[in-house]
Amino acid sequence: MKSKLLKYGSIIPPIIIVVSVVFSLIAKNLLNIHADVPVALQVPMIIWIVVLILSVILVYVFMIGYIIHIIVYNKTLSGRAKLRWSLMIWFLNVFAIPIYWHKYIDRDNNDTIMSSLQVSEDNVI
User: Fold this and answer.
1) CB-neighbour burial class of residue 117 (10 A; exposed 0-12, middle 13-18, buried 19+)
2) Contact 86, 64 (CB under 8 A)
């Protein structure tokens, strides 16, 4: 359960933020900026803004959590690598969070699963 929350929390909010930025850049160039939002789109726009705000909050939470993970719990990284990853998480968070999750967090879960499977296989023989 925890690994699925980390997986989806690391991937979905950055996607929502990137899609919102791309959509706003496209809309800025194609649509009249001074026009009112049509009535039919007001509720979906409000829902999307709320989802976007929640995504930004989640990204900040993951930034802090992953920087703590980098500094305290990740024993495989050297001091310089910890500094680089911390700076990438801080400044390029939308792109670095999913990469860090895939490279270090998911690997930790897979290593734990594989080691538990190997222990159970050793007991069978």
Assistant:
1) exposed
2) no
CA 42 to chain centroid: 28
φ/ψ of 64, rounded to 5, equals -65, -45
Report d(CA 10, CA 20) in Å as an integer. 17
Domain spans, the chain = 2-32+39-120
pTM: 0.70
Q: What is the distance between the alpha carbons of residues 33 and 9, in angstroms, rounded to a whole number?
A: 32
Query: Which residues, including other chains, have CB under 8 Å from residue 54's CB and lie 6 or more apart?
Result: 13
The tens digit of pLDDT for each residue in 76-122 reads 988 899 999 999 999 998 999 999 998 988 875 655 544 544 544 45
